[in-house]
């Protein structure tokens, strides 16, 4: 998320926007070796308010929205989930974005440290 915040700031003058997203839990062939019993155990462990598995199409929806919607032209440095900009995270909630994930100063520091580590 912090990279999206800083990249969006750095590339805004070039018309490039960068956002981050969470597609949700998607039921695909990746789970083919996980038994139904194990999936049910994980679901029970997650609790009754855990979101249901998404189809691949449902899981792709937020990515498609961010890539193709003119409604988001010029919108960058944000976090999206379930085809919406994420709300601020509340303790105990499974959704939302933490304030520290959007911190511009932390984003700039991460970018600088990453450049140093890469020798850029």
Automatic annotation (TrEMBL):
InterPro entries assigned to the protein according to its UniProt record, in alphabetical order: NAD(P)-bd_dom_sf (IPR036291)
GO molecular function terms attached to this record: oxidoreductase activity
Record-linked SUPFAM superfamilies: NAD(P)-binding Rossmann-fold domains
Keyword Oxidoreductase assigned: yes
Alphabetical keyword list: Oxidoreductase
Family: Belongs to the short-chain dehydrogenases/reductases (SDR) family.
Identification of the protein by name: Oxidoreductase
Organism of this sequence: Phytohabitans suffuscus
